[in-house]
Write a structure and sequence with these properties.
Layout lengths: L4 H9 L16 H16 L5 H13 L3 H8 L24 H16 L4 H18 L4 H36 L6 E2 L5 E2 L12
């Protein structure tokens, strides 16, 4: 049988001793699963897999989430000659950094120059970035986390300042609202007005 480079691509990419092991946790696409299914079909047609093995691996192929889980299904198949159509595993591309994560960190740093006005955008973009990265596998988790920390810290400090201002205002208002019963001279002697029985003040 002639050697097929497509099958070799799977074996080399998922070699546990090679560089491909670093990408084992990267999310696989539906196209990746379909390509691996073709490899399993060829392996079964060539007698490399029994009926039970083929059925079991086919089920796992459609539920696999990462390259590592897919690679484990063909790790024991040689780089032989699958008889199906030619297909090559796409070259791995380093995940890009999520733009929302960059924005979150940028707004978080800008808080020091805007008196905390960019705290809310830092928090919003940070949460959006974390959601997107869970779905796309992009980088930037550290940036998003830093942006969220800076954002929530600024919001917390602002809330404490508002609370302190409210408490201070209530204290001052309560003090100014107390009735005055007399006046004090410079010497500290309190004078109370004296009244006669008829209500006229003493001269």
């Amino acid at each position: 049988m002639a050697d097929n480079p497509a099958h070799r691509a799977w074996s080399q990419h998922f070699d546990s001793r090679g560089a491909g092991a670093a990408y084992a946790s990267v999310r696989a696409s539906d196209a990746d699963r379909e390509r691996l299914v073709e490899v399993l079909k060829d392996g079964f047609a060539e007698g490399r897999l029994t009926q039970d093995e083929y059925n079991l691996r086919m089920g796992r192929a459609y539920t696999a989430r990462t390259y590592g889980e897919l690679g484990a299904l063909v790790a024991d198949l040689p780089g032989g000659a699958p008889s199906g159509p030619a297909y090559a595993f796409p070259a791995y591309r380093r995940p890009r950094t999520n733009g929302m994560a960059i924005a979150s960190l940028g707004f978080g740093i800008a808080e020091f120059f805007t008196m905390g006005l960019t705290a809310i955008p830092a928090i919003v973009f940070g949460h959006i970035a974390r959601q997107q990265m869970r779905e796309t596998g992009e980088r930037g988790h550290g940036m998003a986390k830093a942006g969220l920390i800076l954002g929530w810290t600024a919001v917390t400090l602002f809330a404490l300042l508002v609370l302190l201002a409210m408490v201070t205002g209530l204290v001052l208002a309560s003090r100014h609202g107390q009735p005055v019963t007399g006046s004090r001279l410079d010497g500290g002697i309190q004078l109370m007005p004296l009244f006669r029985r008829n209500g006229a003040p003493v001269s």
